[in-house]
Amino acid sequence: MNVTRRLIRICKRFVNTEAKCQDRPEWIKPIGYQTAVSVYNPITRCKVPLILKTENVLKWYICGPTVYDSAHIGHATTYIRSDIIRRILSDYFNIDVLLVMGITDIDDKIIKCSIESGKDFKTLSRHFETEFYADMNKLNIREPYLYCRVTDYIPQIIHFVKELLARDYGYVTKDGSVCFDTNKYNKYGKLRTPVPDAVKSQHPDKKSALDFALWKASKDNEPSWKCPWGRGRPGWHIECSAIASAVFGNSVDMHSGGIDLAFPHHENEEAQSCCYHNVDQWVNYWLHCGHLSLKGDIKMSKSLKNTISIQNYLENYSANHLRMLCLLSHYRNGIEFSDEVMQNAVLVTKKFDNFISDCDNYVAGKFETGEIDENLLLTVNNQFFILLETD
């Protein structure tokens, strides 16, 4: 029974959220099919009912990797946490989850690495994309319904930008880039109060520091595509909007990623997509996972060169150890990674492994024990699932 109580405490910690809503009217309650699930809403800052546009089908878009380097365990915890939530929704609540993941295979960092390595950007990105799929498989993360590469959606992205220009939500700069005009969208700042970049900029022709690139004019020898306003490549934010819109249309049930993506990435996605589809709300539910940091609250980042690759991690610990580490905290909270913290995850995992082994041996008749009160066991089991459903 101690193991069962421990599992209940873990799951309560994982799904627990604030009980009281703040008065933030920006979120629009969807019209559709009610589920038995409540989810935390970062706009209202409280739990709200999960309502699906299509009965028993959750349309979920998740921001995937930028494939210029190996994925690290900070990335892994975001995908593991999302996978845990997905499994609960599909396996316990019987919701059909259509998960689509975007793969950024053209980007400033990819171009930089391509130049430095002397490899074609496609060769470079495909290598790390394949490696990413292998890493996710080793971590027992379920494959999404679709993987969508940015370079496979260039026509849809160009059309998206063209429509925003036609509706006066964008403007072309002197060099042929296209920026989104945030002053034309009066709902900007749904997810977080906008904070202009300290440096206006990387693009001197922006009307506002908050304006962001929809399309970047190409430089010498950079990968580029032809469009009505000149050759170039997509801006970062437009990629996810165009892909998710191409797959799901003018409404997405759920959109997720790391907490660092809330602003500006997800904010910009929501703004341009609402303008493109002429709707007041494009994503109904945003899900943001907390960061994994090193001891001392030091961010794990490729730019700081302090990352631990998934492959290196698996030389010392198992996939289940990392999953247990994620289960031991709420999905929105940060995780501190250290050997001490991991040893705790290892010990908890071992308790569950031993418990399951004892159960298997008992069922197989290999484990002699006293009488088991099956009614009591069933009651505890039901209480556990009630806690999952209501907390």
TrEMBL record:
This protein's GO CC annotations: cytoplasm
UniProt-listed GO biological process terms: cysteinyl-tRNA aminoacylation
PANTHER family: CYSTEINE--TRNA LIGASE, MITOCHONDRIAL-RELATED, CYSTEINYL-TRNA SYNTHETASE
Keyword Endoplasmic reticulum: no
UniProt cofactor(s): Zn(2+)
Signal sequence extent: none
Pfam families on file: tRNA-synt_1e
tRNA synthetases class I catalytic domain sequence ranges: 55-345
CDD domains assigned: CysRS_core
Family: Belongs to the class-I aminoacyl-tRNA synthetase family.
The EC number(s) this enzyme carries: 6.1.1.16
Molecular function via GO: ATP binding; cysteine-tRNA ligase activity; metal ion binding
Protein name: cysteine--tRNA ligase
This protein's UniProt keywords: Aminoacyl-tRNA synthetase, ATP-binding, Ligase, Metal-binding, Nucleotide-binding, Protein biosynthesis, Zinc
First-level EC class: ligase
InterPro entries per record: Cys-tRNA-ligase, Cys-tRNA/MSH_ligase, Rossmann-like_a/b/a_fold, tRNA-synt_1_cat_dom
Superkingdom assignment: Eukaryota
